[in-house]
Amino acid sequence: MAKHDPTLSRLFHALADDTRRGALTRLAKAPAPVTELAEPTGLKLPTVMRHLAVLEEAGLITSFKDGRTRTCALVPEALEPVRSWIEEQRAQWEARLDRLDAFVMQIMKDDEQ
Amino acid sequence: MAKHDPTLSRLFHALADDTRRGALTRLAKAPAPVTELAEPTGLKLPTVMRHLAVLEEAGLITSFKDGRTRTCALVPEALEPVRSWIEEQRAQWEARLDRLDAFVMQIMKDDEQ
DNA sequence: ATCATGCTTAGCCATATGGCTAACTATCGC
DNA sequence: GCGATAGTTAGCCATATGGCTAAGCATGAT
């Protein structure tokens, strides 16, 4: 099944976890072997491997095996779809920030739930 | 229980779903009642409500009830933490794009799995 | 008062996710 | 070859997620 499926949903899902974001920021400094990525997490190796697999399936990282150690590294462009989606939204959301005022008033007065 | 917990994980998770992103882009045009948000999805109301709850818990939308209809609207600032995290990463990732070259070579020749 | 509308709540079901242990494979260093 | 090292695979378990139906509860229209 699609080894690398960098759809928005897959990307966002991959990013929706502290452990995985932690691995990414660690890899932002330099490529690293699995064990080194696992160490600060306090999690067991198989668990970390799963997280790394999620990142790799989303296309956010690559890895290659040299001898018995697997080295992981970022795929910098991978973040682009996410970034552009966010930017698109932000542009539109801000574009109508003005028209929102009246709506906010409604909330103020009704203040439901 | 936290009604509004806009942590990064929660935000990313909320965004990791087509239906929910669909609702957001719809709301980018203007606030809308639940039924209208549900209509294009082909999903049942309770299901859509759950999606909207996820968005609201992440702080991405608000809603208020006027009579029997609940109107939902974006919370434009909500996207900011996500945007800034992405930007931070991008900055760092690109910063060491150069040093990545050697690594890519490795992948080329080993070509694991 | 009654009926349709627009949610809401409760609860069921299948699958996905995140964690673990145990056991296996493949190097590397001696 | 032998033991330690670094992954890897398989499988178990609890909880979360995403979908549904059925039933309930206001509110608006007649």
Query: What is the CATH top level name of chain A?
Result: Mainly Alpha
Structural class of chain A: alpha+beta
Mean pLDDT of chain A: 86
Tell me which CATH architecture of chain A applies here. Orthogonal Bundle
Assembly state (oligomeric): homodimer
Instruction: Give the biggest beta sheet of chain A.
Output: 3 strands, antiparallel
Give the strand order, joined by hyphens, for the main sheet of chain A.
1-3-2
User: Which percent range describes the beta-strand content of chain A?
Assistant: 5-15%
Number of helices of chain A: 6
Low-confidence parts of chain A: none
| Radius of gyration of chain A (Å) | 19 Å
**Shape summary of chain A:** elongated
End-to-end span of chain A in angstroms?
44 Å
GO molecular function, one term (chains A, B): DNA-binding transcription factor activity
Domain HTH arsR-type (chains A, B): 1-94
Protein name (chains A, B): Transcriptional regulator
What can you see in these coordinates?
The structure is a homodimer. With about 110 residues, chain A is of the alpha+beta class. The first copy, chain A, has one domain: Orthogonal Bundle (Arc Repressor Mutant, subunit A), CATH 1.10.10.10. The first copy, chain A, contains six helices and three strands. The first copy, chain A, has helices at about 10-15, 20-30, 35-40, 45-55, 80-95, 100-110, and strands at about 30-35, 60-65, 70-75. A three-stranded antiparallel sheet of chain A has the order 1-3-2. In chain A, strand 2 and strand 3 (about 70-75) form a beta hairpin. The longest helix of chain A has 16 residues, at about 80-95. The mean pLDDT of chain A is about 85. At the A-B interface, helix 1, helix 2, strand 2, strand 3 and helix 5 of A face helix 1, helix 2, strand 2, strand 3 and helix 5 of B. The structure holds a DNA duplex (30 and 30 nucleotides).
